[in-house]
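Sample entry as discussed:
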Amino acid sequence: MLRFLPKWNLVDALCEAWGVTGDAVMVVSVIGVLLCIAVGYLLGSLNSAIIISRLFLHRDIRAHGSKNAGATNMLRTYGTKYAVMTLALDMIKAAIATTLGYVIFSVFIGAPIAGFFCIFGHMFPVYYRFKGGKGVACTGIVALMLDPWTFLIMLLCFVVITAGTRFVSLASIMCAFLYPLLLRAFFPGGWVQLMGILTTAFVIFMHRENIKRLWNGKESKLTFSRKSKQHSDDEGGRT
């Protein structure tokens, strides 16, 4: 969506206002990139599951259920209301981080950088001993902010694969593979491609245990059965 907004950004505006030229442009640009990294990572490190469980329930989600700080464990432990709140806030932080990246240093550089580091922060949050989620929901929203067509195709693939196999992890992994390919087709650019490839690598890395279980035929399937859901939460990891 951001690609359809005006092409204004803070780095270019400051360079023009201050009459920056030559090597000084590179210095301002590097500062802009570092700011995008910091904003994305620090926002991504805000774990909604932990915040909501402490704020509204006066408990720590990491001490209950599967002890994972994600929407899946929130759903099983505290119900749909708090799971939806968790998922929504994770999506909002990804949207804000990507938008701030766009404002700081354009949709072609700042937005993909801030978006990736938001996903990275969600996976390895500095506030919570670097133990976070798998970044799937954040990746979806970053894709939406960068290019709606990429997001819609990924969403369709996710729904079809999940409905056909009932393996949410398999759907997530396949969408991760598609992500940089779709960006290349619909929104080409050096930084966009690089951040897309890095996102794919880290999402797959976070699903390494799921890949092992899929290979061994032991991965839990999506089900509305309470017993199966309990088993899935204990194995399935973070959202």
